[in-house]
Amino acid sequence: MINKIQGVVLSLVLLLSGCTIVDSSSIVIGNTRQQTNIDDIRLYRTAPTSYEEIAMISASAGHDFKSDGALVNEAMEQLKKEAAKVGANAVLLTEIRERSGTVTMYRNISSNADSNNFGVATSGDRYTRVKGIAIFVKK
């Protein structure tokens, strides 16, 4: 049988190790191709000399307790998955947005409204959103 302390510890471990929330989407603007391998997708910050645009793509990753770097990596993986789905071999990055913040809330924890007995709750709010153009680079 689990006692109260073990229950609290277990709950905390489950909360902190929770899944990253990821999402992605694409809007086709060119000719799609056969799906490609995610490991073959290259990332560009400036446009290569010769390419075809296939789709506008976006992805996001969020988690209250993961590092910003981990969220960027997960968002980029999702972006590459979207590019692979439409047959791209590269992504031209257009936007990277990060939010790393902590929200602290104070509330009266007494049933007496006139009481000055306040509690503090802190919650992280981290996410990364990335956007790009799925492209096919001609070799």
Automatic annotation (TrEMBL):
Name of this chain's protein: Lipoprotein
Organism: Aliivibrio fischeri SR5
PROSITE patterns: PROKAR_LIPOPROTEIN
